[in-house]
Design a protein that fits this description.
It comes from Bacillus aquiflavi. This is YtxH domain-containing protein. By secondary structure, the protein is mainly alpha-helical. The protein has one domain (41-141). Helices cover 94% and strands 0% of the residues. The protein has three helices and no strands. The longest helix has 65 residues, at 44-108. It is rod-shaped.
């Protein structure tokens, strides 16, 4: 495993641990608040008022977390799209180079071999189109 892969794995684990901690903290806070409210000796009006306040706070926290999740999701999608574009360009360049080599071989061989190279050229073009289509589908799914 390369150093870059190890760093990416460590970052992923840190994000996962942070997310688990955050979810645990929120659940703990909600359970603790509900327990404290239900066990406290208060009148019905006071209890309902406290429950409404806690519900409002929880709603605000949830909206904040939702916005954060949407932002991070968009960032990850953009990064994935950028990497896909880079990969598409690299495959395209390599395919072009391969196609140029085939064409140069085609010119230097006899007419019988030329017919075989034309078939190979057609196969290469077909594979290139299939690869491009697969990348476009992957990009569309992001």
């Amino acid at each position: 495993m390369t150093k870059k892969e190890r760093n990416q794995l460590e970052e992923k684990e840190e994000r996962s641990n942070a997310k688990d901690f955050l979810v645990g903290s929120i659940v703990g806070a909600v359970v603790g608040a509900a327990t404290a409210l239900l066990l406290a000796p208060k009148s019905g009006k006071e209890l309902r008022k406290d429950l409404n306040e806690q519900a409002s706070l929880l709603k605000e926290k949830t909206e904040t977390l939702k916005d954060t999740a949407i932002t991070k999701g968009s960032d990850l999608a953009a990064a994935a799209k950028e990497k896909t574009n880079t990969l598409t360009k690299a495959v395209s360049e390599q395919s072009s180079q391969l196609l140029n080599k085939v064409k140069s071989i085609k010119k230097s061989e006899s007419s019988e071999t030329t017919d075989e190279a034309t078939g190979a050229d057609s196969d290469i073009k077909t594979k290139l189109k299939e690869t491009q289509k697969a990348f476009e589908e992957t990009e569309a799914n992001l």
